[in-house]
């Protein structure tokens, strides 16, 4: 019975860690999606800049839903500008969601007293290295 009580105590801790990791994963996904959209925006900017210097009646091709469509520059250019503006708005909403997720993550950490082990392990490694170095000096002095 003692082991079942121990498992019951560990379960909430495991659930807290799982919840924390889920929040971190959601935050990473938001940042990744924001990065993808920013790259698409840069591509749109390049194409818009090129098309601004081209004759408006010239043919151009655009991929719409996986289908290559022939249009003229004067038709395509406003559509690209509109898409770019929508991407800009979407990035702003993603940025707000990312900030909110970061606040939620920090609040979760503070509420449940979660510490990230990577920070602690660096301090421990430095302490271990210092103590091992001291032991080596003691060993060297003992052998002399």
From TrEMBL:
InterPro entries: PFD2, PFD_beta-like, Prefoldin
This protein's GO CC annotations: prefoldin complex
BP term (GO), one: protein folding
Cited SUPFAM superfamilies: Prefoldin
Region (Disordered): 118-144
One example GO MF annotation: unfolded protein binding
Protein name: Prefoldin subunit 2
């Amino acid at each position: 019975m003692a082991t079942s009580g121990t498992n019951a105590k560990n379960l909430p801790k495991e659930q807290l860690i799982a919840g924390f990791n889920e929040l971190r994963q959601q935050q990473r996904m938001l940042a990744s999606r924001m990065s993808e959209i920013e790259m698409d925006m840069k591509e749109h900017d390049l194409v818009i800049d090129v098309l601004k210097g081209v004759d408006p009646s010239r043919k151009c091709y655009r991929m719409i839903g996986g289908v290559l469509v022939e249009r003229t520059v004067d038709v395509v250019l406003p559509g690209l500008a509109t898409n770019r503006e929508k991407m800009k708005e979407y990035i702003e909403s993603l940025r707000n969601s990312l900030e909110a997720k970061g606040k939620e993550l920090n609040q979760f950490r503070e509420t449940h007293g979660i510490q990230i082990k990577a920070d602690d392990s660096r301090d421990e490694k430095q302490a271990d290295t210092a103590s091992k170095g001291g032991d080596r000096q003691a060993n060297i002095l003992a052998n002399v």
